[in-house]
Amino acid sequence: MKILDRMILILFSIIILIISIVMVLLMFSIINFTTMANLYAKLIASDVATNITLGISIVCIVLAIKAIFFGSSSNSNNGINGDGILLENEAGKLLISKDTIENLVNGVAKGFENTQSVTTKVIVDSQNTLKVFVTLMVLPNTVINELSMNLQQRIKEVVKNVTDLDIKAIDIKIKNIVTPEENKES
């Protein structure tokens, strides 16, 4: 929710609360109707109080019209969804989940013969761009720099071809080097 929407909600909640309390007090005869009429008469007797009341009323009317007819714009979140990226075209909408992209990246990384135990995390930022974090273990005699460059390039290509999304950054973390004995056990 935007700040203005929250302020409108708080303002109307306070107004409704006050009106409700006054109505309950009137219904149970805790305050007298003539007391409320006298208070209202004193309120509008002064020019300053009348102008303040009129100003507050106009602001409330404008805010009510804004809230009713031009509701919160939080429904359109520029294609960003907590679960992935929302793409729209004239035929409809498509939500590509982060899990889908993570599985796609895992498949690419596992396709390299020197990689083991691949985990992936995808982050979608406010500009609707992707950041991918890949953690993996490699086999001995792997040229890590070459593997990471090839892996980054291949991930970008596959994600672009399959989802038509561009990846802003691919960060690779080599967690460990797996010895052949460890590889047989897992």
List keywords for this structure.
186 residues; alpha+beta; Alpha-Beta Plaits; three-stranded antiparallel beta sheet; three-stranded mixed beta sheet; 54% helix; rod-shaped
Give the class-level CATH name of the largest domain. Alpha Beta
Rg calculated over all Cα atoms: 31 Å
How many β-strands, per DSSP?
Answer: 6
How is the main sheet built?
A: 3 strands, antiparallel
User: What's the CATH H-level homologous superfamily of the largest domain?
Assistant: Cation efflux protein, cytoplasmic domain
CATH topology of the largest domain: Alpha-Beta Plaits
> What is the count of helical runs?
6
Task: Please state the structural category.
Answer: alpha+beta
The side-by-side strand order for the widest beta sheet comes to 1-2-3
Number of domains: 2
Topology order in helix (H) and strand (E) letters: HHHEEEHEEHEH
- Label the overall shape: rod-shaped
Strand content: 15-25%
Percent range of helical residues: 40-55%
- Write down the overall mean pLDDT: 83
